[in-house]
Structure formats: structure tokens, C-alpha cells
Amino acid sequence: MSESFDVVVIGGGPAGYPAAIRAAQNKLTVACIDEWKNREGLPVFGGTCLNVGCIPSKALLESSELYHRLREEFAVHGIRTTGASFDVAQMQKRKGGIIKASTQGILALFKASGVTPLQGHGKLLPGRRVEFTAHDGTRRELAAKHVVLASGSLPAELRSVPFDGKTIIDSCGALDLDAVPKRLGVIGAGVIGLELGSVWRRLGSELTVLEALPEFLPIVDQQVAKEAQRQFKKQGFDIRLGAKVTGAKIQGDAVSVTYSDARGEQSLTLDKLIVAIGRRPFTRDLLSAGTGVELDERGFIKVDHECRTGVEGIWAVGDCVRGPMLAHKGKEEGVMVADLIAGRFAEVNYKTVPSVIYTAPEIAWVGLTEEQVKASGRAYKVGVFPFLASGRARAMEQTQGFVKLIAAQDDDEILGVHIIGPLAGELIAEAVLAMEYSASSEDLQRTMHAHPTLAEALHEAALAADKRAIDFVNR
Ligand code: FAD
Ligand code: AMP
């Protein structure tokens, strides 16, 4: 007889593990299967996010930013430093400790909530059965009332620039470098490319970013994107737009990369090349024949707005389904599915998924960009408040950037908030909450904000939308 569970989750990343925990909180019997092994070959939960994504990248961004600030910004505070240096090995060790604590934390959460962790490969069989192959090769079959597929994603490869794992690397390799490359190239000026480029640039790399599109950060509000491009240029990023990479050749310890731009064929010699052209859904050996679960033309598992596949009792969440590839989007989908399975009300509001780019300055947004609102034809108003006018930002010596709020002209509904500046990723939370509750810009205007805080900049941007800002000359 096969073992049976109410819910079997395949994938223990930020989409899968919250689904498992919430299902257990809902008094369902749950198993969560994950096959990830860390660098030491030990099985761990947490997926991309905890092992090679959000958490390690933020750990290195923090370390490199501290060093950069010490060199560039301490003097103005009257703090003198001499002989400052850094130790990449210690930065990597600290990062490793954070990953370890985070991944072990998931096992502890599973234990506390009663989720059965199964470390090995999971494969969906027809009829809501799952074949589980443990790392030692033993196989067993699980029966489930519901199966949640949360198999995640992998770095996309550029066929003309194959990874060699040493000189041409993906985001995982870029997080594991043991020395600062002198000449670093990044293909793709997306979120991951800019964050990883920032880490090594702050530590001294000469950074060239090659981006095929003619526009910088096209998904971002263009007023913000322009400011970001200006700031990155000041930091020494060499961002080449309209540069389509066509090939790369390893030459000893270096790599010669070729690309075409408006001027024709170009080439560049680099010590390391990070390919950061996006991620693709990962579903290898996940579905046996006859399950009825369908993939779309890009390889994502097809689901509806409630993450139901076309097959009764089979759900899919996170990076392996449509929508932004973000940990928090996957988490909310996982939790929603576990609640729907338990017969509770649940939904994900895809209109209020926040996005953050953890560069310096940080970039964060929620809702529509001004370009999108304009294209929709709806009349709108815009309020902008620069951090230069924020007392707290001045005290922090972090006055770059601004908060921009877009609201509908007719009913004052907030349509989008875009922030570039200090702690933008934290500040955006208030805008997300406001939009989740369908707040108007007037609602934000009437909400008291502590002084002096960076959050006042959002308050003032809301006021500015009606030309009523107090701390900035309204135009
Ligand atoms: P994953 O995290 O990829 O987890 C899937 C899990 O499923 C893996 O552990 C895998 O081993 C397991 N699995 C797959 N198939 C099977 C199978 N058949 N059997 C058993 N196990 C299986 N997002 C953010 O929101 N904020 C950030 O700051 C951020 N930074 C990032 C930085 C980098 C460098 C990268 C690469 C990504 C970053 N992301 C960030 C994206 C984020 O990591 C992903 O959106 C998130 O991890 C997706 O979660 P998931 O659970 O869907 O998939
Ligand atoms: P993201 O999807 O946010 O990770 O961003 C990936 C970026 O890589 C996008 O902006 C793409 O336009 C860019 N890109 C994809 N292929 C190439 C290529 N061959 N050369 C340069 N840039 C590329």
C-alpha cells in the first residue's frame, strides 16, 4: 500500500515551503519533497531563493555596500579611515552562514508545524500519485488528495555563450567568486545582472553591462530608469544599450565577447562574464506521461488565476508558472493554494506585487508605470518628491532619487508608486498596503507620518499629486 497525504508539495523553495506549512496549519497531512543539494553535497530546503538567490545576493550586496560607503561616504560624516581593506573569503563565509541558518530554519519550521520533509526527487504520476526517489536511490509511491507543483526555475542560457563554470558563469557562479575580477562583464541589464554587477563593482571590478534592448530597464517607470542610469554611470558602470551579444571565446584565463550594436560588430576582453539574461521554468522529469498537466509554449506549467492546473487536485505555484519570478509572489501563491485546498477563501492580487532592485540607490515599485497609465488612456496626475528635500535623507547623506506617485484624475485611486532612493524596498510596503486597500492619494495625504523619516517622502509625493506638498515647491 502506498503512503498517503492530504497534500504533497514538490519543491521546497519560497513557493513550495510556505504552501506546505500553511497546509499543515490547516490541519492537513503534508509532505514536502525537495532534491536540492548544497555545495557540500548536503540536502537542503529553501530552493533558489535561500541557496543561490535573494538571500546570498543580499548578503553580498550588504557587505560590498558597507565597504563602498566606508571608502566613499564616511569622510563627509567626519569619520576618518585609513588602510581599509576587505576579505572576499570572509564575505563568502558570512554569506554561507546566513544560507545555512536560513535553510536549517525551514527544517525547524517543518518540524514545528508537522510537515514531513522528503529529500530527493518527486515526480507526478497520473491519478494524484507521486513517485519519490530518495537521494540514496530508494523509491516509493505517495498517494495525495492534492499535489502542489513548485519546481521553480533555472538561469537561462545564451546558446552562443555557453557557461564553462569558470570564466563564463551564471548568477550562482557570480555569487561564489573567491576574488574580485579585474574586468567583469554582465550580459543583461535586468534585476539580477545589475545587483550582481553592483556587488563586484563596489569591490573594484571594471564593470561593463551589455544589454540588447535600446532602452534601460524598460519594465521600470522611465523617469526612475533614467535616474537609475545616471546614478549607475556615476558609480562607474559602463552600460552599453542596444548591444546584442553574439558569441564568446575563452582565451586562456580571459574571455573575448562579441556583440553587435548600432556601430556594427564589437568585441571586448573580460576576465569574467556573467550571463544574466533571465530565468526559465524548471520542470525536468517532474511530470510522467499521462498526468494531463500542460506546459505553455515557454515551458511554464499552465494554471488559472487560482493556480489550478487543468487537472483536478493538481496545482502549481511560483517561478514554474506565469507571472513575475519573485519569491514573495510564489509565497503568496503557495499560501493561497493551501487555503483553497482547505476550503478557505484566498486570492492573490497580482496588481499589487511589489518589485525591488537592491542596487544603490534601491529601486522599488508597485502598480502601473506612467508609460502604462498613459497608454491606458486614463487621465492621471503625478506627485514627485525628491529625497533631497527630506530631512532624514539629508541626515543620512542619502539624498539621491525620489518618490513618484501616480493617481487617477477622476477618483484619485493610486495607480502606481515608484521609488528610487534609500531603503526604497522598505518604503514600497506602505504603497502596497495602500493599493491593496484601494486607497486614494488623499488617504495617504491624510495619514500621519513620523518626522523625520524617509516614509514622509511618500506622504509628500501624495500631497504633490494635488500640488499641496509642504516641504517641496509644487510645480
Ligand atoms: P525555487 O526557489 O527555484 O525552488 C524550487 C525548488 O524545487 C528547488 O529547491 C528545487 O530543488 C526543487 N525541485 C524542482 N523540481 C523538483 C523535483 N522534481 N523534485 C524535487 N525537488 C524539485 N526574488 C525576490 O523576490 N527577491 C529577490 O531579491 C530576488 N533575488 C534573486 C537573486 C538571484 C541571484 C536569483 C537567481 C533570484 C532572485 N530572486 C529574487 C528570484 C527568486 O529566487 C525566485 O523567484 C524564487 O526562488 C522562486 O521560488 P520557487 O519556490 O518558485 O522556486
Ligand atoms: P531579466 O529578465 O530582468 O533578468 O533581464 C535579462 C536581460 O537580458 C533583458 O533585459 C534582456 O533584454 C537581456 N538580454 C537577453 N539576451 C541578450 C543578449 N544576447 N545580449 C544582451 N542582452 C541580452
What does this structure look like?
Helix 1 packs parallel to helix 4 (88-113) and helix 1 runs parallel beside helix 8 (327-341). The protein is 31% helix and 26% strand. The protein has a 5-stranded mixed barrel. The protein is built from 13 helices and 21 strands. It has 3 domains: 3-155 and 280-348, FAD/NAD(P)-binding domain (3-Layer(bba) Sandwich), CATH 3.50.50.60; 168-277, FAD/NAD(P)-binding domain (3-Layer(bba) Sandwich); 352-464, FAD/NAD-linked reductase, C-terminal dimerisation domain (Enolase-like, domain 1, 2-Layer Sandwich), CATH 3.30.390.30. It is globular. With 475 residues, it is of the alpha/beta class. The chain has helices at residues 16-25, 47-52, 54-72, 88-113, 171-175, 191-202, 222-234, 327-341, 370-376, 391-396, 424-436, 441-445, 456-465; strands at 3-10, 30-34, 115-125, 129-134, 139-149, 153-155, 168-169, 183-187, 206-210, 238-240, 244-251, 254-261, 264-270, 272-275, 279-281, 314-316, 355-357, 362-367, 380-386, 402-408, 414-421. Strand 3 and strand 4 (129-134) form a beta hairpin. Adenosine monophosphate is lined by residues 158, 187-192, 210-213, 244-245, 276-278. Flavin-adenine dinucleotide binds next to strand 2, helix 2, helix 3, strand 3 and helix 8.
